[in-house]
Write a structure and sequence with these properties.
The complex is a heterodimer of chains A (334) and B (256). Chain A has 15 helices and 4 strands. Chain A is an all-alpha fold. In chain A, the strands form 2 sheets. Chain A has a two-stranded antiparallel ribbon with strand order 1-4. In chain A, a hairpin with a 2-residue loop joins β2 (145-146) and β3 (149-150). In chain A, 49% of the residues are buried. By secondary structure, chain B is an alpha/beta fold. Chain B is globular. Classes of the chains: A mainly alpha (334), B alpha/beta (256). The structure holds adenosine-5'-diphosphate and magnesium ion. Adenosine-5'-diphosphate binds next to β2 and α1 of chain B. The site of adenosine-5'-diphosphate has 11 residues of chain B, from β2 and α1.
Protein backbone atom coordinates (compact mmCIF):
# COMPACT_ATOMS: atom_id res chain seq x y z
CA UNK A 1 0.00 0.00 0.00
CA UNK A 2 2.69 2.40 1.08
CA UNK A 3 4.76 1.56 -1.93
CA UNK A 4 1.85 2.27 -4.26
CA UNK A 5 1.60 5.73 -2.71
CA UNK A 6 5.35 6.13 -2.87
CA UNK A 7 5.42 5.38 -6.57
CA UNK A 8 2.43 7.56 -7.41
CA UNK A 9 3.13 10.69 -5.44
CA UNK A 10 2.06 12.98 -8.25
CA UNK A 11 -1.26 11.21 -8.79
CA UNK A 12 -1.83 11.53 -5.06
CA UNK A 13 -1.00 15.22 -5.27
CA UNK A 14 -3.66 15.81 -7.90
CA UNK A 15 -6.27 13.78 -6.00
CA UNK A 16 -5.61 15.73 -2.80
CA UNK A 17 -5.73 19.07 -4.60
CA UNK A 18 -9.03 18.11 -6.20
CA UNK A 19 -10.46 16.94 -2.87
CA UNK A 20 -9.43 20.09 -1.03
CA UNK A 21 -10.85 22.37 -3.65
CA UNK A 22 -14.34 20.96 -3.07
CA UNK A 23 -14.34 22.24 0.47
CA UNK A 24 -12.26 25.36 0.36
CA UNK A 25 -13.02 29.09 0.57
CA UNK A 26 -12.45 31.55 -2.25
CA UNK A 27 -9.09 32.80 -1.05
CA UNK A 28 -7.62 29.35 -0.55
CA UNK A 29 -8.99 28.40 -3.93
CA UNK A 30 -7.14 31.35 -5.41
CA UNK A 31 -3.92 30.15 -3.78
CA UNK A 32 -4.45 26.60 -4.98
CA UNK A 33 -4.90 27.93 -8.51
CA UNK A 34 -1.76 30.01 -8.21
CA UNK A 35 0.12 26.99 -6.89
CA UNK A 36 -0.93 24.90 -9.88
CA UNK A 37 0.19 27.68 -12.22
CA UNK A 38 3.57 27.62 -10.54
CA UNK A 39 3.71 23.84 -10.83
CA UNK A 40 3.42 24.28 -14.61
CA UNK A 41 5.99 27.06 -14.79
CA UNK A 42 8.46 25.37 -12.43
CA UNK A 43 8.26 22.13 -14.39
CA UNK A 44 9.19 24.07 -17.50
CA UNK A 45 12.10 25.82 -15.83
CA UNK A 46 13.22 22.49 -14.40
CA UNK A 47 13.46 21.04 -17.90
CA UNK A 48 16.03 23.60 -18.99
CA UNK A 49 17.70 24.40 -15.67
CA UNK A 50 17.55 21.06 -13.89
CA UNK A 51 17.65 18.52 -16.69
CA UNK A 52 19.55 20.37 -19.43
CA UNK A 53 21.71 22.30 -16.94
CA UNK A 54 21.32 25.65 -18.68
CA UNK A 55 21.13 28.83 -16.64
CA UNK A 56 18.22 30.51 -18.39
CA UNK A 57 16.71 33.44 -16.52
CA UNK A 58 14.07 34.64 -18.94
CA UNK A 59 11.11 32.65 -17.68
CA UNK A 60 9.30 35.64 -16.22
CA UNK A 61 9.46 37.10 -19.72
CA UNK A 62 8.27 33.89 -21.38
CA UNK A 63 5.40 33.84 -18.91
CA UNK A 64 4.57 37.42 -19.84
CA UNK A 65 4.47 36.52 -23.52
CA UNK A 66 2.01 33.72 -22.80
CA UNK A 67 -0.16 35.91 -20.59
CA UNK A 68 -0.29 38.86 -23.00
CA UNK A 69 -0.74 36.75 -26.13
CA UNK A 70 -3.70 34.82 -24.77
CA UNK A 71 -5.25 37.95 -23.23
CA UNK A 72 -4.87 39.90 -26.49
CA UNK A 73 -6.25 37.05 -28.58
CA UNK A 74 -9.31 36.80 -26.35
CA UNK A 75 -9.87 40.52 -25.73
CA UNK A 76 -9.34 41.90 -29.20
CA UNK A 77 -10.05 39.00 -31.55
CA UNK A 78 -12.52 37.07 -29.43
CA UNK A 79 -10.51 33.89 -29.88
CA UNK A 80 -11.81 31.07 -27.64
CA UNK A 81 -9.56 30.08 -24.76
CA UNK A 82 -9.20 26.58 -26.11
CA UNK A 83 -7.19 28.12 -28.95
CA UNK A 84 -5.72 31.11 -27.12
CA UNK A 85 -4.06 28.85 -24.54
CA UNK A 86 -1.97 26.73 -26.92
CA UNK A 87 -1.20 29.88 -28.92
CA UNK A 88 0.19 31.42 -25.72
CA UNK A 89 2.47 28.42 -25.28
CA UNK A 90 3.54 28.39 -28.91
CA UNK A 91 4.23 32.13 -28.96
CA UNK A 92 6.48 31.79 -25.92
CA UNK A 93 8.16 28.73 -27.47
CA UNK A 94 8.76 30.68 -30.66
CA UNK A 95 10.37 33.54 -28.74
CA UNK A 96 12.29 30.92 -26.78
CA UNK A 97 13.74 29.60 -30.05
CA UNK A 98 14.55 33.08 -31.31
CA UNK A 99 16.39 33.86 -28.08
CA UNK A 100 17.83 30.40 -27.76
CA UNK A 101 19.54 30.27 -31.13
CA UNK A 102 21.99 33.09 -30.36
CA UNK A 103 22.00 32.52 -26.58
CA UNK A 104 23.30 28.95 -26.70
CA UNK A 105 26.64 30.24 -27.92
CA UNK A 106 27.35 31.03 -24.31
CA UNK A 107 26.75 29.05 -21.16
CA UNK A 108 26.89 29.33 -17.38
CA UNK A 109 27.05 32.84 -16.03
CA UNK A 110 27.08 34.40 -19.50
CA UNK A 111 23.88 32.63 -20.46
CA UNK A 112 22.33 33.91 -17.25
CA UNK A 113 23.36 37.48 -18.16
CA UNK A 114 22.05 37.22 -21.71
CA UNK A 115 18.70 35.86 -20.59
CA UNK A 116 18.35 38.48 -17.85
CA UNK A 117 18.98 41.04 -20.58
CA UNK A 118 16.18 39.50 -22.61
CA UNK A 119 13.83 39.75 -19.62
CA UNK A 120 14.62 43.43 -19.29
CA UNK A 121 13.92 44.03 -22.97
CA UNK A 122 10.57 42.26 -22.70
CA UNK A 123 9.78 44.39 -19.62
CA UNK A 124 10.61 47.52 -21.58
CA UNK A 125 8.39 46.50 -24.48
CA UNK A 126 5.49 45.69 -22.16
CA UNK A 127 5.81 49.10 -20.50
CA UNK A 128 6.21 51.17 -23.63
CA UNK A 129 4.08 49.49 -26.28
CA UNK A 130 1.02 51.10 -24.77
CA UNK A 131 -1.50 50.70 -27.62
CA UNK A 132 -1.13 46.94 -27.41
CA UNK A 133 -0.08 46.09 -23.86
CA UNK A 134 -1.62 49.00 -22.00
CA UNK A 135 1.82 49.90 -20.66
CA UNK A 136 2.20 50.08 -16.90
CA UNK A 137 -1.59 50.30 -16.55
CA UNK A 138 -1.74 46.69 -17.63
CA UNK A 139 -4.80 45.10 -19.12
CA UNK A 140 -7.92 43.26 -18.06
CA UNK A 141 -8.21 39.61 -18.99
CA UNK A 142 -11.50 38.23 -20.25
CA UNK A 143 -12.81 35.07 -18.61
CA UNK A 144 -12.60 31.96 -20.75
CA UNK A 145 -15.80 30.47 -22.11
CA UNK A 146 -16.19 26.81 -22.90
CA UNK A 147 -19.25 25.77 -24.90
CA UNK A 148 -21.13 28.86 -23.82
CA UNK A 149 -20.30 28.53 -20.12
CA UNK A 150 -18.14 31.28 -18.66
CA UNK A 151 -15.41 30.24 -16.22
CA UNK A 152 -15.04 33.44 -14.28
CA UNK A 153 -14.51 32.93 -10.54
CA UNK A 154 -11.67 31.06 -8.87
CA UNK A 155 -13.74 27.96 -8.28
CA UNK A 156 -14.53 27.72 -11.97
CA UNK A 157 -11.12 28.59 -13.35
CA UNK A 158 -9.71 25.95 -11.01
CA UNK A 159 -11.02 23.26 -13.32
CA UNK A 160 -9.29 24.77 -16.33
CA UNK A 161 -6.03 25.21 -14.47
CA UNK A 162 -6.23 21.77 -12.88
CA UNK A 163 -6.74 19.96 -16.18
CA UNK A 164 -4.02 21.89 -17.98
CA UNK A 165 -1.59 21.37 -15.09
CA UNK A 166 -2.25 17.63 -15.15
CA UNK A 167 -1.71 17.50 -18.91
CA UNK A 168 1.53 19.46 -18.66
CA UNK A 169 2.68 17.08 -15.93
CA UNK A 170 2.05 14.09 -18.16
CA UNK A 171 3.93 15.85 -20.95
CA UNK A 172 6.93 16.50 -18.70
CA UNK A 173 7.05 12.82 -17.70
CA UNK A 174 6.89 11.89 -21.35
CA UNK A 175 9.66 14.31 -22.34
CA UNK A 176 12.03 13.12 -19.64
CA UNK A 177 11.50 9.45 -20.47
CA UNK A 178 12.04 10.14 -24.17
CA UNK A 179 15.30 10.47 -26.06
CA UNK A 180 14.90 14.20 -25.84
CA UNK A 181 15.00 14.16 -22.05
CA UNK A 182 17.99 11.86 -22.18
CA UNK A 183 19.68 14.31 -24.55
CA UNK A 184 19.00 17.12 -22.05
CA UNK A 185 20.78 15.17 -19.33
CA UNK A 186 23.59 14.18 -21.68
CA UNK A 187 24.41 17.76 -22.68
CA UNK A 188 24.23 18.83 -19.04
CA UNK A 189 26.82 16.26 -18.07
CA UNK A 190 29.32 16.72 -20.89
CA UNK A 191 28.99 18.00 -24.40
CA UNK A 192 31.95 16.03 -25.75
CA UNK A 193 30.58 12.66 -24.73
CA UNK A 194 27.09 13.71 -25.82
CA UNK A 195 28.28 14.65 -29.31
CA UNK A 196 30.24 11.45 -29.62
CA UNK A 197 27.06 9.54 -28.81
CA UNK A 198 25.33 11.24 -31.71
CA UNK A 199 23.56 14.03 -29.88
CA UNK A 200 23.20 17.35 -31.67
CA UNK A 201 24.06 19.67 -28.81
CA UNK A 202 22.99 22.96 -30.40
CA UNK A 203 19.57 21.73 -31.46
CA UNK A 204 18.97 20.03 -28.15
CA UNK A 205 19.73 23.31 -26.36
CA UNK A 206 17.44 25.34 -28.61
CA UNK A 207 14.75 22.79 -27.99
CA UNK A 208 15.29 23.00 -24.24
CA UNK A 209 14.66 26.73 -24.59
CA UNK A 210 11.58 26.18 -26.71
CA UNK A 211 9.92 23.58 -24.55
CA UNK A 212 10.59 25.30 -21.26
CA UNK A 213 9.34 28.57 -22.75
CA UNK A 214 6.25 26.69 -23.89
CA UNK A 215 5.60 25.71 -20.27
CA UNK A 216 6.16 29.29 -19.15
CA UNK A 217 3.80 30.55 -21.87
CA UNK A 218 1.04 28.15 -20.85
CA UNK A 219 1.73 29.02 -17.21
CA UNK A 220 1.55 32.73 -18.03
CA UNK A 221 -1.80 32.31 -19.70
CA UNK A 222 -3.17 30.35 -16.72
CA UNK A 223 -1.68 32.98 -14.41
CA UNK A 224 -3.70 35.66 -16.20
CA UNK A 225 -6.85 33.66 -15.39
CA UNK A 226 -6.06 33.75 -11.69
CA UNK A 227 -5.45 37.50 -11.73
CA UNK A 228 -8.07 38.69 -14.24
CA UNK A 229 -5.71 41.61 -14.76
CA UNK A 230 -2.06 41.62 -15.84
CA UNK A 231 0.66 44.24 -15.84
CA UNK A 232 4.42 44.16 -16.48
CA UNK A 233 5.17 44.01 -12.73
CA UNK A 234 3.79 40.48 -12.62
CA UNK A 235 6.60 39.27 -14.83
CA UNK A 236 9.70 41.08 -13.62
CA UNK A 237 12.96 39.59 -12.44
CA UNK A 238 11.41 38.84 -9.06
CA UNK A 239 9.05 36.45 -10.80
CA UNK A 240 11.97 34.69 -12.50
CA UNK A 241 13.88 34.43 -9.24
CA UNK A 242 10.88 32.97 -7.46
CA UNK A 243 10.57 30.28 -10.13
CA UNK A 244 14.29 29.61 -9.84
CA UNK A 245 13.78 29.26 -6.09
CA UNK A 246 10.99 26.74 -6.62
CA UNK A 247 13.19 24.53 -8.79
CA UNK A 248 16.17 24.71 -6.45
CA UNK A 249 14.22 24.27 -3.20
CA UNK A 250 11.99 21.57 -4.63
CA UNK A 251 14.84 19.72 -6.26
CA UNK A 252 16.25 20.29 -9.73
CA UNK A 253 16.37 17.44 -12.23
CA UNK A 254 13.58 15.67 -10.37
CA UNK A 255 10.08 15.36 -11.74
CA UNK A 256 8.64 15.74 -8.25
CA UNK A 257 10.88 18.65 -7.28
CA UNK A 258 8.87 21.42 -8.99
CA UNK A 259 5.75 20.29 -7.13
CA UNK A 260 7.46 20.51 -3.76
CA UNK A 261 8.94 23.89 -4.69
CA UNK A 262 5.68 25.31 -5.99
CA UNK A 263 3.74 24.18 -2.91
CA UNK A 264 6.26 25.63 -0.47
CA UNK A 265 6.83 28.91 -2.27
CA UNK A 266 3.13 29.55 -2.79
CA UNK A 267 2.15 28.93 0.82
CA UNK A 268 5.23 30.17 2.66
CA UNK A 269 4.64 33.86 1.81
CA UNK A 270 1.08 33.44 3.07
CA UNK A 271 2.25 32.06 6.39
CA UNK A 272 4.66 34.96 6.68
CA UNK A 273 2.16 37.62 5.78
CA UNK A 274 2.48 39.20 9.20
CA UNK A 275 6.24 39.19 8.96
CA UNK A 276 6.64 41.29 5.85
CA UNK A 277 10.35 41.94 6.31
CA UNK A 278 11.10 38.27 6.61
CA UNK A 279 9.02 37.51 3.57
CA UNK A 280 11.20 39.78 1.50
CA UNK A 281 14.52 38.37 2.56
CA UNK A 282 13.01 34.90 2.86
CA UNK A 283 13.53 33.93 -0.76
CA UNK A 284 17.13 35.05 -0.68
CA UNK A 285 17.86 33.13 2.49
CA UNK A 286 16.08 30.04 1.23
CA UNK A 287 18.10 30.10 -1.98
CA UNK A 288 21.40 30.51 -0.17
CA UNK A 289 20.67 27.72 2.29
CA UNK A 290 19.60 25.29 -0.41
CA UNK A 291 22.29 26.05 -2.96
CA UNK A 292 24.99 25.59 -0.35
CA UNK A 293 23.64 22.82 1.88
CA UNK A 294 21.12 20.97 -0.23
CA UNK A 295 21.86 21.47 -3.93
CA UNK A 296 19.58 18.57 -4.86
CA UNK A 297 16.69 20.24 -3.06
CA UNK A 298 14.04 18.59 -0.95
CA UNK A 299 13.30 15.96 -3.59
CA UNK A 300 16.97 15.00 -3.57
CA UNK A 301 16.88 14.72 0.21
CA UNK A 302 13.74 12.57 0.17
CA UNK A 303 15.19 10.35 -2.55
CA UNK A 304 18.47 9.85 -0.72
CA UNK A 305 16.50 8.99 2.47
CA UNK A 306 14.59 6.49 0.38
CA UNK A 307 11.29 8.18 1.17
CA UNK A 308 10.73 8.91 -2.52
CA UNK A 309 11.74 6.42 -5.20
CA UNK A 310 14.84 7.21 -7.23
CA UNK A 311 13.91 8.71 -10.59
CA UNK A 312 15.67 7.90 -13.80
CA UNK A 313 18.42 10.44 -14.45
CA UNK A 314 17.97 12.15 -11.11
CA UNK A 315 21.44 12.50 -9.85
CA UNK A 316 22.31 10.12 -7.06
CA UNK A 317 23.48 11.77 -3.88
CA UNK A 318 27.24 11.99 -4.15
CA UNK A 319 29.06 9.32 -2.29
CA UNK A 320 31.58 10.35 0.28
CA UNK A 321 34.01 7.58 -0.35
CA UNK A 322 34.87 5.87 -3.61
CA UNK A 323 35.29 2.13 -3.15
CA UNK A 324 38.00 2.08 -5.80
CA UNK A 325 39.48 -1.39 -5.86
CA UNK A 326 42.04 -0.81 -8.57
CA UNK A 327 45.56 -1.41 -7.30
CA UNK A 328 47.41 0.67 -9.81
CA UNK A 329 47.49 4.43 -9.72
CA UNK A 330 45.83 6.14 -12.65
CA UNK A 331 48.31 8.46 -14.28
CA UNK A 332 46.82 10.69 -16.93
CA UNK A 333 49.05 11.12 -19.89
CA UNK A 334 48.65 14.23 -22.01
CA UNK B 1 38.32 -5.15 -50.28
CA UNK B 2 36.96 -1.63 -49.83
CA UNK B 3 38.28 -0.06 -46.66
CA UNK B 4 35.78 0.65 -43.89
CA UNK B 5 37.58 3.83 -42.95
CA UNK B 6 39.79 5.75 -45.32
CA UNK B 7 41.71 8.72 -43.96
CA UNK B 8 43.59 10.75 -46.55
CA UNK B 9 45.99 13.60 -45.93
CA UNK B 10 44.33 14.51 -42.64
CA UNK B 11 45.76 17.63 -41.04
CA UNK B 12 44.80 19.28 -37.75
CA UNK B 13 46.33 22.55 -36.63
CA UNK B 14 46.12 24.29 -33.26
CA UNK B 15 47.39 27.78 -34.01
CA UNK B 16 50.98 27.29 -35.08
CA UNK B 17 51.12 23.66 -33.97
CA UNK B 18 50.37 20.97 -36.53
CA UNK B 19 49.12 18.19 -34.25
CA UNK B 20 48.22 15.85 -37.10
CA UNK B 21 50.19 16.33 -40.29
CA UNK B 22 49.03 14.86 -43.59
CA UNK B 23 48.10 11.51 -42.03
CA UNK B 24 46.65 8.74 -44.18
CA UNK B 25 45.45 5.30 -43.22
CA UNK B 26 42.86 2.79 -44.32
CA UNK B 27 41.18 0.24 -42.07
CA UNK B 28 39.60 -2.89 -43.54
CA UNK B 29 36.28 -4.20 -42.22
CA UNK B 30 36.77 -6.33 -39.13
CA UNK B 31 40.37 -5.19 -38.70
CA UNK B 32 42.00 -4.24 -35.42
CA UNK B 33 44.37 -1.40 -36.19
CA UNK B 34 46.90 -0.29 -33.64
CA UNK B 35 47.90 3.34 -33.37
CA UNK B 36 51.11 3.93 -31.49
CA UNK B 37 53.51 6.79 -31.02
CA UNK B 38 55.29 8.78 -28.31
CA UNK B 39 53.33 11.10 -26.00
CA UNK B 40 52.13 14.16 -27.86
CA UNK B 41 52.43 12.39 -31.21
CA UNK B 42 48.86 13.37 -32.05
CA UNK B 43 47.04 10.05 -31.48
CA UNK B 44 44.20 11.55 -29.46
CA UNK B 45 43.99 14.47 -31.86
CA UNK B 46 43.67 12.05 -34.77
CA UNK B 47 40.85 10.33 -32.85
CA UNK B 48 39.22 13.70 -32.29
CA UNK B 49 39.53 14.58 -35.96
CA UNK B 50 37.98 11.29 -37.03
CA UNK B 51 35.13 11.57 -34.54
CA UNK B 52 34.50 15.21 -35.48
CA UNK B 53 35.68 16.85 -32.26
CA UNK B 54 38.76 18.51 -33.73
CA UNK B 55 38.60 20.77 -36.79
CA UNK B 56 40.12 19.30 -39.93
CA UNK B 57 42.40 21.76 -41.75
CA UNK B 58 42.97 19.53 -44.76
CA UNK B 59 42.33 16.01 -45.93
CA UNK B 60 39.32 13.75 -46.23
CA UNK B 61 37.52 11.00 -44.36
CA UNK B 62 35.45 8.21 -45.90
CA UNK B 63 33.39 5.70 -43.98
CA UNK B 64 32.23 2.71 -46.06
CA UNK B 65 32.76 4.83 -49.16
CA UNK B 66 30.70 7.76 -47.84
CA UNK B 67 32.53 11.05 -47.62
CA UNK B 68 31.97 12.13 -44.01
CA UNK B 69 34.57 14.92 -43.96
CA UNK B 70 31.96 17.64 -43.67
CA UNK B 71 29.83 15.74 -41.12
CA UNK B 72 29.49 17.03 -37.57
CA UNK B 73 30.45 14.89 -34.59
CA UNK B 74 26.89 13.68 -33.91
CA UNK B 75 26.40 12.93 -37.61
CA UNK B 76 29.54 10.84 -37.67
CA UNK B 77 28.42 9.04 -34.53
CA UNK B 78 25.13 8.33 -36.26
CA UNK B 79 27.05 6.97 -39.25
CA UNK B 80 28.69 4.45 -36.97
CA UNK B 81 31.88 6.06 -35.70
CA UNK B 82 32.03 5.56 -31.93
CA UNK B 83 34.81 5.96 -29.44
CA UNK B 84 36.01 5.86 -25.88
CA UNK B 85 38.12 8.53 -24.22
CA UNK B 86 41.58 8.56 -22.73
CA UNK B 87 40.03 10.21 -19.68
CA UNK B 88 36.76 8.37 -19.05
CA UNK B 89 33.81 10.54 -20.08
CA UNK B 90 30.89 9.00 -18.24
CA UNK B 91 28.23 10.60 -16.08
CA UNK B 92 29.71 9.63 -12.75
CA UNK B 93 26.56 10.27 -10.75
CA UNK B 94 24.28 8.12 -12.90
CA UNK B 95 23.95 4.37 -13.15
CA UNK B 96 25.62 2.07 -15.64
CA UNK B 97 22.28 1.47 -17.31
CA UNK B 98 21.58 5.18 -17.71
CA UNK B 99 25.03 5.80 -19.13
CA UNK B 100 24.52 3.09 -21.73
CA UNK B 101 21.19 4.67 -22.68
CA UNK B 102 23.05 7.77 -23.83
CA UNK B 103 24.76 5.66 -26.46
CA UNK B 104 21.45 4.77 -28.08
CA UNK B 105 20.80 8.25 -29.41
CA UNK B 106 21.63 7.83 -33.02
CA UNK B 107 19.03 5.12 -33.34
CA UNK B 108 16.29 7.66 -32.73
CA UNK B 109 12.80 6.30 -33.04
CA UNK B 110 11.14 9.00 -35.09
CA UNK B 111 12.10 11.76 -37.52
CA UNK B 112 11.17 14.47 -35.04
CA UNK B 113 13.51 13.41 -32.25
CA UNK B 114 16.10 12.52 -34.84
CA UNK B 115 15.91 16.10 -36.06
CA UNK B 116 16.21 17.58 -32.60
CA UNK B 117 18.74 15.38 -30.89
CA UNK B 118 20.52 14.12 -33.98
CA UNK B 119 20.74 10.72 -35.52
CA UNK B 120 18.76 9.02 -38.20
CA UNK B 121 15.27 7.65 -38.27
CA UNK B 122 15.75 4.49 -40.30
CA UNK B 123 15.64 2.15 -37.38
CA UNK B 124 12.29 2.11 -35.70
CA UNK B 125 11.02 0.41 -32.59
CA UNK B 126 14.37 0.02 -30.94
CA UNK B 127 13.92 -2.04 -27.85
CA UNK B 128 16.31 -0.22 -25.54
CA UNK B 129 15.98 -2.73 -22.71
CA UNK B 130 16.78 -5.67 -24.95
CA UNK B 131 19.79 -4.00 -26.60
CA UNK B 132 21.21 -2.87 -23.28
CA UNK B 133 20.67 -6.26 -21.67
CA UNK B 134 22.50 -7.88 -24.56
CA UNK B 135 25.49 -5.55 -24.30
CA UNK B 136 25.67 -5.79 -20.51
CA UNK B 137 25.54 -9.56 -20.68
CA UNK B 138 28.30 -9.58 -23.32
CA UNK B 139 30.51 -7.38 -21.15
CA UNK B 140 29.74 -9.51 -18.09
CA UNK B 141 28.23 -6.51 -16.32
CA UNK B 142 24.59 -7.50 -15.96
CA UNK B 143 24.79 -7.41 -12.17
CA UNK B 144 26.34 -3.94 -12.24
CA UNK B 145 23.65 -2.26 -14.31
CA UNK B 146 22.09 -0.31 -11.43
CA UNK B 147 25.38 0.67 -9.85
CA UNK B 148 26.29 4.35 -9.90
CA UNK B 149 29.33 4.76 -12.13
CA UNK B 150 31.48 6.54 -9.55
CA UNK B 151 31.38 3.42 -7.38
CA UNK B 152 33.00 1.32 -10.11
CA UNK B 153 36.67 0.56 -10.61
CA UNK B 154 38.41 2.34 -13.46
CA UNK B 155 38.45 -0.96 -15.35
CA UNK B 156 34.69 -1.33 -15.11
CA UNK B 157 34.24 2.32 -16.09
CA UNK B 158 36.20 1.63 -19.26
CA UNK B 159 33.88 -1.30 -19.97
CA UNK B 160 30.90 0.99 -19.55
CA UNK B 161 32.41 3.36 -22.12
CA UNK B 162 32.88 0.48 -24.53
CA UNK B 163 29.30 -0.59 -23.83
CA UNK B 164 27.98 2.89 -24.53
CA UNK B 165 29.61 2.66 -27.94
CA UNK B 166 28.47 -0.91 -28.62
CA UNK B 167 24.76 -0.30 -27.98
CA UNK B 168 24.68 1.73 -31.20
CA UNK B 169 26.23 -1.16 -33.15
CA UNK B 170 29.05 1.00 -34.57
CA UNK B 171 31.02 0.25 -37.70
CA UNK B 172 34.20 1.70 -36.27
CA UNK B 173 35.10 1.63 -32.59
CA UNK B 174 38.02 3.80 -31.52
CA UNK B 175 39.60 3.01 -28.15
CA UNK B 176 41.91 5.66 -26.71
CA UNK B 177 44.32 3.98 -24.28
CA UNK B 178 41.67 1.70 -22.79
CA UNK B 179 44.24 -0.11 -20.66
CA UNK B 180 45.65 2.96 -18.91
CA UNK B 181 45.49 2.53 -15.15
CA UNK B 182 44.53 -1.15 -15.21
CA UNK B 183 46.07 -3.95 -13.15
CA UNK B 184 47.71 -6.84 -15.07
CA UNK B 185 44.71 -9.09 -14.47
CA UNK B 186 42.25 -6.43 -15.59
CA UNK B 187 44.44 -5.77 -18.60
CA UNK B 188 44.33 -9.38 -19.68
CA UNK B 189 40.55 -9.49 -19.45
CA UNK B 190 40.24 -6.33 -21.54
CA UNK B 191 42.62 -7.72 -24.16
CA UNK B 192 40.50 -10.81 -24.56
CA UNK B 193 37.46 -8.63 -25.00
CA UNK B 194 39.06 -6.40 -27.65
CA UNK B 195 40.32 -9.42 -29.55
CA UNK B 196 36.83 -10.85 -30.02
CA UNK B 197 34.93 -7.59 -30.63
CA UNK B 198 35.33 -7.54 -34.44
CA UNK B 199 33.90 -11.02 -34.92
CA UNK B 200 31.12 -10.63 -32.34
CA UNK B 201 29.98 -7.12 -33.23
CA UNK B 202 30.96 -6.78 -36.86
CA UNK B 203 33.08 -3.79 -36.03
CA UNK B 204 36.52 -2.48 -36.98
CA UNK B 205 38.74 -1.20 -34.21
CA UNK B 206 41.28 1.58 -33.99
CA UNK B 207 43.28 1.13 -30.81
CA UNK B 208 45.70 3.52 -29.14
CA UNK B 209 47.87 1.58 -26.75
CA UNK B 210 51.18 2.16 -25.03
CA UNK B 211 52.19 -1.39 -24.19
CA UNK B 212 53.84 -2.44 -27.45
CA UNK B 213 53.81 -6.25 -27.02
CA UNK B 214 50.10 -6.00 -26.40
CA UNK B 215 49.50 -4.00 -29.56
CA UNK B 216 51.58 -6.45 -31.54
CA UNK B 217 49.57 -9.35 -30.17
CA UNK B 218 46.14 -7.77 -30.71
CA UNK B 219 46.43 -5.85 -33.94
CA UNK B 220 46.31 -6.94 -37.54
CA UNK B 221 48.23 -3.87 -38.58
CA UNK B 222 49.87 -1.00 -36.76
CA UNK B 223 50.23 2.65 -37.69
CA UNK B 224 52.99 4.65 -36.05
CA UNK B 225 52.55 8.35 -35.48
CA UNK B 226 55.35 10.73 -34.56
CA UNK B 227 54.96 14.49 -34.28
CA UNK B 228 51.69 14.25 -36.16
CA UNK B 229 53.08 12.31 -39.11
CA UNK B 230 52.57 8.67 -40.03
CA UNK B 231 56.14 7.38 -39.99
CA UNK B 232 55.40 3.69 -40.49
CA UNK B 233 52.68 1.18 -41.09
CA UNK B 234 52.76 -2.59 -41.15
CA UNK B 235 52.30 -5.81 -39.25
CA UNK B 236 53.59 -6.19 -35.71
CA UNK B 237 56.90 -7.71 -36.65
CA UNK B 238 57.48 -5.21 -39.45
CA UNK B 239 56.95 -2.37 -37.00
CA UNK B 240 59.12 -3.89 -34.29
CA UNK B 241 62.00 -4.18 -36.71
CA UNK B 242 61.54 -0.83 -38.41
CA UNK B 243 64.59 1.37 -37.73
CA UNK B 244 62.57 4.58 -38.19
CA UNK B 245 60.17 3.48 -35.48
CA UNK B 246 62.99 2.48 -33.17
CA UNK B 247 64.55 5.87 -33.64
CA UNK B 248 61.29 7.67 -32.84
CA UNK B 249 60.98 5.66 -29.64
CA UNK B 250 64.73 5.81 -28.92
CA UNK B 251 64.53 2.08 -28.39
CA UNK B 252 63.02 2.50 -24.95
CA UNK B 253 59.63 0.85 -25.31
CA UNK B 254 60.40 -1.70 -27.98
CA UNK B 255 62.75 -3.52 -25.62
CA UNK B 256 59.90 -4.26 -23.25
N1 LIG C 1 42.82 21.33 -28.07
C1 LIG C 1 44.14 21.50 -28.25
N2 LIG C 1 44.64 22.76 -28.36
C2 LIG C 1 45.97 22.95 -28.54
N3 LIG C 1 46.87 21.96 -28.64
C3 LIG C 1 46.42 20.70 -28.54
C4 LIG C 1 45.04 20.41 -28.32
N4 LIG C 1 44.90 19.05 -28.26
C5 LIG C 1 46.13 18.54 -28.43
N5 LIG C 1 47.05 19.51 -28.59
C6 LIG C 1 48.47 19.31 -28.83
O1 LIG C 1 48.60 18.44 -29.91
C7 LIG C 1 49.69 17.56 -29.70
C8 LIG C 1 49.21 16.14 -29.81
O2 LIG C 1 48.46 15.82 -28.66
P1 LIG C 1 47.69 14.47 -28.49
O3 LIG C 1 46.90 14.22 -29.71
O4 LIG C 1 46.94 14.52 -27.22
O5 LIG C 1 48.87 13.42 -28.40
P2 LIG C 1 48.85 11.89 -27.96
O6 LIG C 1 47.42 11.47 -27.75
O7 LIG C 1 49.51 11.17 -29.05
O8 LIG C 1 49.62 11.81 -26.68
C9 LIG C 1 50.26 17.89 -28.35
O9 LIG C 1 51.39 18.73 -28.55
C10 LIG C 1 49.16 18.61 -27.66
O10 LIG C 1 49.66 19.55 -26.74
MG1 LIG D 1 46.42 10.73 -26.14
Amino acid sequence: MLSILRNNVLTLFFIIVLAISFTTDAYSQYLINLMLVYVVVAQGLNLILGFAGMFAFAHGAFMAIGAYVSALLMNTLGVPYLIALPMAGLAAAFVGCVIGIPAIRVSGLYLAMVTIGVSEIVQWVLRHWKPVTGGTDGMLVASPTFFGVEFSDDFQSFYVIFVVCALMTVLAQFVIRSRLGRAFVAIREGEIAAQSSGINVARTKVFAFAISAFYAGIGGSLFSLTQHYINPENFNLYQTIMQFCMVIVGGSASLIGPFIGAVILTWLPELLRNAQAFQEIGFGLLLIVFVIFMPRGLAGLLISRNILPRERFSRAARLRKKPEASTSVVVERP
Amino acid sequence: MNPLLKVEGLTVRFGGLTAVDDASLAIAPGQIRGLIGPNGAGKTTLFNAISGLAPIAAGSLHLSGVDVTSFSAPQRAAQGIRRTFQTVQLVQSLTVYENLLFGLHSVARDPFTAFVVGGHAQRTNVDADRILAEVLEYLGMSDLQDRVVETLTIADQRYVEIGRALVARPKLLMLDEPTAGLSPAQLERLDDLIAKLPADWDVSILLVEHVIPLVVKLCDRITVLDRGRVIAEGTGSEIENDPVVQKAYLGERLDA
